[in-house]
Design brief:
By secondary structure, the protein is mostly helical. It contains seven helices and no strands. Helix 1 packs antiparallel against helix 2, helix 2 packs across helix 7 and helix 3 crosses helix 5.
């Protein structure tokens, strides 16, 4: 890889990292909570974490966004990426499963919330995930 290519990669990493941090700050500091606002910033956060331009995938499905991200990294179509993602780790997880788990961990860290595992995995799209984040933020703000 040439020096110019390495610089291009570093610049892209910096751009997406800064964008994800900004989106996370918007979500953390959103007061009073607004679902539409959180949903829009969560979508931007996911695109930034997945290092994809906003127009790369029209879907709001978490699985589809994850597959689009893998396809982008592999430079293949999302359909081919899904078919190729059969290699399994020793724990039996596909690349898509690991990528989603890492996304959910980053969300907890960046948003300052604890996401219930079963509910997080059950959230199939950005809207459902945004509702869960709002509920977890409210729980944190008003401990029972």
């Amino acid at each position: 890889m040439s020096a110019a290519d390495r610089k291009k990669v570093r610049d892209a990493l910096r751009k997406y990292t800064e964008a994800a941090a900004w989106e996370a700050r918007c979500i953390r500091e959103n007061d009073p909570p607004d679902l539409g606002y959180v949903r829009a910033h969560l979508r931007g956060y996911i695109f930034s974490k997945y290092m994809m331009p906003e127009g790369e995938c029209r879907s709001d499905g978490i699985a589809e966004l994850t597959e689009a991200s893998l396809a982008r990294m592999m430079k293949v179509t999302p359909e081919l990426a899904a078919r190729l993602d059969t290699a399994r780790s020793c724990a039996g997880a596909t690349s898509a499963t690991v990528k989603k788990a890492l996304l959910f961990q980053a969300m907890e860290r960046d948003f300052g919330v604890v996401l219930p595992a079963a509910e997080t995995v059950a959230a199939k799209d950005v809207s459902a995930l945004a509702k869960l984040v709002l509920r977890c933020k409210a729980r944190r703000a008003f401990p029972s």
